[in-house]
Predict the structure.
Amino acid sequence: MKFFYFPGCKVHQFMPQYDRSVQTVLSRLGVELIHCDANCCGYPVRHRSLMASVYSAARILALASRGQTAILTPCKCCYGNLKHARYWLAKNERMRRQVNGLLGEEGLVLDLSLPVRHLLSVLKEEVGIDAIKENLARPLLGLKVAAHYGCHALRPSGVVAFDNPLAPTIFEELVSVLGATPVDWPLRLECCGNPLWEKNNSLSLKLMQNKVDSALGSGADILCTACTYCQIQFDPVRFETVPDAITTRTLPSVLYSQLLGLALGFNRSEMGLDQNAIRWDF
């Protein structure tokens, strides 16, 4: 099982533990990752220049097509933008010609038939629930988890095709197979507020705190994310800006790959849990 690995821009600088834990658990589960220097997916400029955003994503698609390998990304914002680019390139012939012309200058060729996959989809559909269960060394029994989906994997559903946008189940299934208990919480599908960070900080923090309060009120022990941007919002941003972020009242936020790694038998250091801003012991 082989994928072109695209971690995204922010992960190496802001969330290296996500990159390391993803690579470690996938290797244990028999997934081979092909590494390649790549540019930004284009998400940060999508609302400034659709063409620049699409071209940035198309270049990643073209790099993957050299090996005829599907793309795997652990970032839902990158996943969403790559899927948006494939959608617009398939629909807009003029844009497709322009992008192909630019790619041709580098000897690259666009192939829209290659799938774009998020980490959670690969784990559920390619690796499989049974294979994960067979590899468990330390089930996370008794742990109550609030799974945070993130916006860009769910909406617009006709473009991203990740799961049912109104009643998704993939994240809860992947939490349950680890022996943990997913909680049902009212704001599980709402935005974390990160897209507004450094644009409207007070609103960004309000959206985040509403989600934290919702998860706490539903009995969760931790939040669980599967997106670089979302984890940045719930962990370092919250730690630096919310006065009670390190008190017992506030939920730690843990990446799904870190949870999976613990259940597979890796230790805290191997999963980079000591690099999370808000400490969590289990």
In short: Residues 201-217 form the longest helix (17 residues). The chain has a mean pLDDT of 95. The radius of gyration is 19 Å.
